[in-house]
Amino acid sequence: MRRLLSDSGWTLGLAGLLAALLVMTKLIQPDFGVSGLDSLGRAALPFALATLGMAVVVIAGGIDLSLASMMAVCSVTAARMMEGASDGQSALALIFVLALGAAMGALNGALVVASRVPDIVVTLAMLFVWQGTALLILNAPGGAAAPWLRALGVGGLTLPLIPEALTVWLPRSVIFLMVCLAVIWLPIRRSPLGLRFYAIGSDALAAFRSGVPVGRTKIAAYAVTGLFAALGGIAVTMSTGIGEPIPGPYLLAAVAAVVLGGVVLGGGRGGLIGPILAVFVLRLVRMDLTLMSVDPNVTTIVEGAIMVVVVMLGGVLAMRGRRT
């Protein structure tokens, strides 16, 4: 138990903070219930998937500033391909979009490895490349999402617990997020590839001397980030019903949630559960400010200030970690 608290103390603290915020939300808005949780889940889903993608590449010692632009490319591609398509064609379109996201991420990683230019410079350049690509596909919001895709993120399911007399209601958006995490990350985390992600993030030179193919591992990390970015773009199309060619405010939010979730910016430490909890904490703070009728501009300022402070704190902790 002591070891569990030591290893997962930060994550458990975030879970407690999220529970406290939910209680506070209920006090602010007594009518907050199933519909409120559904709205929270749908609003947080694209941010959570973007955060998962950012967390993977940060664990591997990198960063991807083109994440939001890749989400935009995948969003408009999905909406364009699904417009007027049958259910079977729409399913094939989603598979294509997932492959496209992984390919874009792998290209980012290959450019970083081949050029040996810092990740932040390469991905900043690719941000504009993918942003222009999204606008070429759709120069304005448009397209359409398949009805079955939109239904995936609306409503919720009542799940039985043990004992069976206890049940819990979960939004479908949260279940979708949990399935994505379980299908993609858990197999990687328990495989040699996942260990390599942590190894090159902790010390790339030591990993190389231990026989880890650093270049290929970094490309794989960026490919996984691109896959999560594709899921994030699909989630945007799922929630809005159309493709969004303009990148949303996902980049800084993802970095802030990654740091708040306990992932070290220098790489090699952290998991993905903490960042997910951090996303819901940040979105719930915004919801509470809205429920308290705080001016939207002030809400944006407060949210941005929290993100900047969190990112700066993460940078300071990463620099201290390198010195020690």
Structural write-up:
This protein is mainly alpha-helical. The chain has a single domain, classed as ABC transporter involved in vitamin B12 uptake, BtuC. Helix content is 75%, strand content 3%. It has 13 helices and two strands, in the order ααααααββααααααα. It has helices spanning 2-28, 34-59, 67-82, 87-115, 119-137, 147-152, 172-189, 192-202, 204-209, 214-240, 251-260, 273-291, 296-323, and strands at residues 156-160, 167-171. The protein has a two-stranded antiparallel sheet. α3 (67-82) crosses α10 (214-240), α8 (192-202) crosses α10 (214-240) and α11 packs across α13 (296-323). The two termini are 28 Å apart. The mean pLDDT is 87.
Structure in a nutshell:
The protein is mainly alpha-helical.
Protein topology:
Blueprint: H1 2-28, H2 34-59, H3 67-82, H4 87-115, H5 119-137, H6 147-152, E1 156-160, E2 167-171, H7 172-189, H8 192-202, H9 204-209, H10 214-240, H11 251-260, H12 273-291, H13 296-323
Antiparallel strand pairs: 1-2
Key terms:
324 residues; two-stranded antiparallel ribbon; ABC transporter involved in vitamin B12 uptake, BtuC; 3% strand; mainly alpha; 75% helix
